Amino acid sequence: MKSNRRIFLGQLGLGLAALEATGQTLNPSKPISEEAFWDNVRKGFPLTDNRVYLNNGTFGPSPKVVLDAIKTSLDKTNTSGEYGHTDEYRKVLAKFVGVSEEEISLTHNTTEGINIICWGLDLKEGDEVIISLHEHVGNALPWLNRAKLHGIKLKTFEPGTTAEETLDRIKNLVTPKTKVITVPHISCTLGQVYPVKEIADFARPKGIFTAIDGAHGTGTFDINYKELGCDSYATSCHKWMLGPNGSGFLYLKKEHLDRIQAYQVGAYSDAGWDLYTTPPSFPAYNPTAHRYDYGSQSTPLYAGAAASAEYHMALGKDKIEKRVRELSQHLYTGLEELNGYLDILTPKEVQSSICMVTFKPKNLEYREFSKKASKAGFRIRVVPESQLNAIRISTHIYNSKAQLDDFLKFTKEALTT
Asked: What are the φ and ψ backbone dihedral angles of 107, each rounded to 5 degrees?
């Protein structure tokens, strides 16, 4: 732990002003406690103090260093008249998740990456796709649409309460017609972690493509896509990465580039084209995943996305994961003490949870609970999806145990009075 990590933002190369924006110091002779360290990290976020933000699963507010990177790039592009390029930011994002830049396509969100895979795969009528009953609309609707238009068959399952049980339920659905398994890394409903590595290891020798909805995985785990072993992983930068809205990326294994057909193309998607030949020619696609993103990209947004990745790497991906787990477990333990007044729906198994806890109040309709929480100064999310009618709490590094204790106190009062 280098000087209690006081120099973490110095590693970003953003200067002393950025370092001071987090409340950190450069004096190693004055160690601070773990909670004090995270309190100082919180000072680097412009979040107001008039409410407690517990909805990172929907949107992760950016720290000041990310906002500064966006503003600097925005100023530069508009004062120079040069809108810039995103190649350098693609490199940073690839490094962040442990893959090569040739395997990264820049997208606007997770759903865009999912659609690239869903429509690019060569699937025929009757081919089977295994999908869970706890999908976000961004992963459900593309596959439902393809089933509607092309006659593929979706086979659904309810996740188990343990990783092993979930894996077994997937295995039991596989037939010779199974072509794809598509699941979230972490579900938006229960915050349940799916055993992605084990799923990929099972699917690979059978020639089954694994397409992961990683909206909630990147920025929570100390993640390395190569180690996960999945074939594709679509993610957003605006959730757990704490990057700007409107930025994301898709990882696709290099060996599958010619398996996933590019349908929407433009500048940079090609390896050459010519309208003057007879007939006009387009001999080949870009040999990298860049074939799936094209035309002008927002340099400021991807400058912010890269800054958020650098922020995580400098602070320590492993330390962030540890803190995220610690906060979530603190909340889970506190909710367990309210047994009788609510049902916790998120699995208790450590490997099946990380950053979100979903529960269902017993004595109060879930939307009424949400209204009361809002009036009390808590930003939370209701979960009508998957017929749960529940409450989801998601926390990140800008949250504190004291805030969670305040929420637990509110929850007890709301459900017992």
From this structure: -130, 175
CA distance 258 to 210: 16
- Rounded to 5 degrees, φ, ψ at 223 are -95, 145
Q: Is 208 exposed, middle or buried (0-12, 13-18, 19+ CB in 10 A)?
A: buried
User: Is the CB of residue 381 less than 8 Å from the CB of residue 400?
Assistant: no
Q: Could you tell me which of 361, 386, 385 has the C-alpha nearest to residue 371?
A: 361
Domain 78-311 has CATH 3.40.640.10: yes
Q: How many residues are recorded in the chain?
A: 417
Report the run of H or E that residue 378 belongs to, with start and end.
strand 378-379
Q: Mention every residue, 6+ apart, whose C-beta is less than 8 A from residue 138.
A: 109, 110, 111, 114, 213, 215
Q: How far apart are CA 127 and CA 204, in angstroms?
A: 17
Q: Which two tokens stand for residue 72?
A: 């600097």
pLDDT, one tens digit per residue, over 255-293 is 999 999 999 999 999 999 999 999 999 999 999 999 999
Stated pTM of the model:
0.92
Query: Nearest to residue 320, comparing CAs of 20, 60, 58, 136?
Result: 60
- Beta pairing partners, 218: 221
Specify the 3-state DSSP secondary structure of 39.
helix
Contact 388, 27 (CB under 8 A): no
Reduced to 3 states (helix: H, G, I; strand: E, B; else coil), residue 345 is coil
Cis amide leading into 279 (omega within 30): yes
Instruction: Summarize pLDDT for 224-245 with one digit per residue, the tens.
Output: 999 999 999 999 999 999 999 9
CA neighbor of 142 nearest in space, from 124, 178, 118: 118
Chain center to CA of 310 = 16
| Whether the Cβ atoms of residue 152 and residue 129 lie closer than 8 Å to each other | yes
Q: Which two tokens stand for residue 253?
A: 């294994």
Domain boundaries, the chain: 78-311
